[in-house]
Amino acid sequence: MNLLKRWWKPRELEPSTAPVARERLQVLLSHERGATGQSNLLSLIKEDVLAAIKRHISIPSEAVHVKVERRKAISTMRISLDLPK
Amino acid sequence: MSKVIVVTSGKGGVGKTTTTAALGSALAMHGKSVVVVDFDVGLRNLDLIMGAERRVVYDLINVTQNQAKLHQALIRDKRLENLWLLPASQTRDKDSLNEKGLGRLMKELKAQFDFIICDSPAGIERGAILAMRHADEAVIVTNPEVSSVRDSDRIIGLLDSKTEKAEKGGKVEKHLLITRYDQSRAGRGDMLKIDDVLEILLVPLLGVIPESEQVLRASNIGQPVTLANPMSAPARAYSDAARRLLGEAVAMNVPHERYNLISRIFGGRAA
Ligand SMILES: Nc1ncnc2c1ncn2[C@@H]1O[C@H](COP(=O)(O)OP(=O)(O)OP(=O)(O)O)[C@@H](O)[C@H]1O
Ligand SMILES: [Mg+2]
Q: How far apart, in Å, are the Cα atoms of B271 and each of B158, B190, B191, B199, B226?
């Protein structure tokens, strides 16, 4: 099985890079759309979350990550924060 | 009813001119009267891709500046009698295109053709904006890689703000065309997936054109790929896209992610 797998996908030994591209784009475009006045659900939510957190602790805006993942039946939105020590 | 369609991208070299020629000829093969208009003033290329470079006498600038009549500048395709080309100027500066003259020209074209397909120059400056200015619909050409997707996002913003339609409170209908899609890279997980691009840009998919040497071969002999080799993968993908533009419901035949399937079967991580 392992041999076969290697034979089929010799390069898979290196991690795939597309998921990183996708994430970078999502983050970047939510910023840029804000700057050019395009509305974007992600950046709106991100700002709201940031505002809510900031009422309690002070964190920079880079500390909020909003990620949407599309699955077959549903999509999930994951919001994570980098908390200061 | 005539329709103005701009083929645009922001980023250069992603396949706008190839797409303009291929979609234009595919629509003409469906019996529509079509004119493809080269807006890349100073860097015209559509004439070469259409194989009409030696027949150019007058151009877009001459017509907008009243130095020539439209019928003097239009070049009829040698293969399809209802397909025409309006070339760009090669010698003039791109600032010589003026908005008033362009408005007049578009009106005249609309009276004569079912489809007016505008091949936009790269960039987000004046030239690209003039190309999209009168559009009813836009085909946004995107390669599945980060810089192209980012630039497409900018273009979407401009379509929503700088077009006549947008200024009148309407909306340019947008279609996403993913080109130069490379199956083997997608399989390795090194190319953005179609779904990823759609999810990021939120524009409905018009089609996926595979990366293919047939595109280069067609350009060598000065024929749109849909005419040069109609049975090739890119030609079929372009014909399907053209049918979708005509409102037909054509099943989306995305070049499948074969290696992905294999990795799933063998329990690997789905890239
Ligand atoms: N599906 C494809 N497969 C392989 N090569 C392609 C494909 N589409 C376009 N190309 C190649 O990419 C190059 C750029 O294509 P094209 O001139 O259509 O892009 P463009 O967006 O019009 O460029 P510009 O921004 O300079 O006007 C050409 O060499 C063309 O042959
Ligand atoms: Mg071009």
A: 33, 9, 10, 17, 32
Question: B115, B5 in Cβ contact below 8 A?
Answer: yes
Residue numbers in A near B200 (CB within 8 A): 22, 25-26, 29
Q: What is the pLDDT of residues B225-237, one digit of tens each?
A: 999 999 999 999 9
DSSP characters over A7-72: HH-GGGGSPPSHHHHHHHHHHHHHHHHHHTT---HHHHHHHHHHHHHHTTS---GGGEEEEEEE-S
How many angstroms away from the CA of A34 is the closest CA of chain B? 11
CA of B161 to the centre of ligand 1 (A): 27
Closest alpha carbon within chain A to B191: A18
- Mean pLDDT over residues B117-128, rounded? 96
Q: Which helix or strand (DSSP H or E) is residue B3 part of?
A: strand B3-8
Cα dihedral: B60, B65, B68, B69 (round 10): 80
Contact B76, B90 (CB under 8 A): no
Chain-wide mean pLDDT for chain B? 91
B173 with B143: CB under 8 angstroms?
no
**Number of C-beta neighbours around residue B4 at 10 A:** 24
Indicate if ligand 1 lies below 6 Å from the C-beta of B211: yes
Chain B residues in contact with A38 by the CB 8 A cut-off are 153, 156-157, 160
Q: B74-116: per-residue pLDDT in tens?
A: 999 999 999 999 999 988 887 889 999 999 999 999 999 999 9
Q: Which of A27-36, A40-49, B159-168 has the highest mean pLDDT?
A: B159-168
**pTM summary value:** 0.82
User: Is residue A29 very low, low, confident or very high in pLDDT (cuts 50, 70, 90)?
Assistant: confident
How far apart are the C-alpha atoms of A10 and A34, rounded to whole Å?
41
| Interface confidence (ipTM) of the complex | 0.71
